[in-house]
Design brief:
Helix content is 24%, strand content 25%. It is of the alpha+beta class. A 3-stranded antiparallel sheet has the order 3-4-5, covered by helices on one side. The longest helix is centred in the middle third of the chain and has 18 residues. It is globular, with a radius of gyration of 17 Å. The relative contact order is 0.16.
Length: 134
C-alpha cells in the first residue's frame, strides 16, 4: 500500500533552537531568529533579492542584482528575461528549492513590477511564496 511520507528536517525537531537570522533585523534582542527550515529558507531568499552583488561581506558574488531591472524599458521580452533571471538565481543559491510559479504584474504608470515567487522546499515539500516590488 503506497503512501506519501513527509520528511522532517532535523533542524525542525528542536523548536526552541534558532537556526538562522530573520529579516527585518529589528527583534527584541539584536536579531530576530528563525526556528524552522521554512522560515530560514524564506529569509535567505529575501536576503538574496535585497542584496546587490558586491554588498555581502566576504562573498562578493552573492546577491541577485534584481535592481538592474528597475530602469529597463517595459517591453514584452522583459517578463521572460526577469523570470529566467529569477529561476537562475534561485537554482544557483538555493538548490534545495524548486520554483513552482512566478507571477509578474507590470504597473506602467508607476514604472514598477510586482513579483511573486511560489516555491517548494524539496526535502520537506513545504510551499511558500515571497513578494518583491521593484
Amino acid at each position: 500500500m503506497p503512501f506519501n511520507p513527509v520528511n522532517i528536517d532535523p533542524l525542525n525537531l528542536s523548536p526552541s533552537k534558532g537556526i538562522g537570522i530573520n529579516i527585518p533585523f529589528n527583534g527584541d534582542a539584536i536579531f530576530k531568529q528563525t526556528f524552522t527550515t521554512k522560515e530560514d529558507v524564506k529569509a535567505g531568499i529575501l536576503n538574496l533579492f535585497l542584496t546587490e552583488q558586491g554588498e555581502h561581506y566576504l562573498n562578493n558574488n552573492f546577491g541577485s542584482g534584481i535592481r538592474n531591472f528597475l530602469f529597463e524599458q517595459q517591453s514584452e521580452g522583459l517578463d521572460s528575461r526577469l523570470e529566467l533571471f529569477i529561476t537562475d538565481q534561485m537554482a544557483l543559491y538555493f538548490p534545495q528549492v524548486n520554483v513552482e510559479k512566478i507571477n509578474l504584474t507590470n504597473n506602467v504608470d508607476d514604472n514598477s513590477i510586482s513579483i511573486e515567487v511560489l516555491y517548494v522546499i524539496i526535502n520537506t515539500r513545504e510551499t511558500d511564496s515571497i513578494n518583491i516590488f521593484i
